[in-house]
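Two records follow; treat each independently.
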Amino acid sequence: MRRLQRQAARRAGPDRRTEQVPSARWRQTRARMARLHAAAANARRDGPHKLSTRLVHTHLLEDLNAAGMPRNHRVVRHIAGTGISELRRKITYKTAWTGGRVHLADRWYPSWKTCSACGAVKTKPRLSERTFRCDLCAFSLDRDLNAARNLAALGEVTGAMSSPSRGATRNEPDGKPT
């Protein structure tokens, strides 16, 4: 994109003051830029759709407080750029299409503070620690994987992991053709 923008800047584009007509090469470069923009937009839309379709069969989401996350501008920008609310919306309606239900883990559920082996809860783990180490049973695991295991266990307890009818579609909610 950067290369095409530099290329377009070197070409003779339209000028309202002098009534200059844009050159054919400028138009070609602009058309290539438009195609590249469209491809990038399609890729940004396609990724969440594929991910949400894969996650529909899990039915368990963790309700995160994005506004309460650290005020570091880099972290906030990355969180905002991921489109978490759009992903949650897609998972919700795709789960409804298949006849399942979305279960939300409470915002205050200590998924990353709880040991997935023995169930002990650490009171104040540091965010800089990337590996979870249990003080009681000496269990050690990546912090995110430990949280994922705890959320999966919570899903099994609440019945979130029961598989919905896979044959249902949007037009046929009960799986019977109309």
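The next record belongs to a different protein.
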Amino acid sequence: MPTYDYRCENNGQVVEVNHRMSETINTWGELCERAEIPCGDTPASTPVSRMATGGNLISSSALGSGAAPAPACGAGGCCPTGVCGLD
């Protein structure tokens, strides 16, 4: 099943979940239910947006930390490894 990243602007969290391509997740409550995590202090009705990472097929052992990804070099981020040559 494809894996999607969703971001909540209210709390800054990025959550990775698996679901069918035909499904949509619109709120923090739906996202937390799918990811089997508590909503915490964020209201369940808070909107979330799917990030433009595509629907990747990954194993559960490769799931991220939940932190927002750093921007790519072309998007204004830095390149700490020096691989891109733009640092």
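Discussion point: Strands lie at 3-7, 14-18, 49-50. How would you locate this feature using only the token line?
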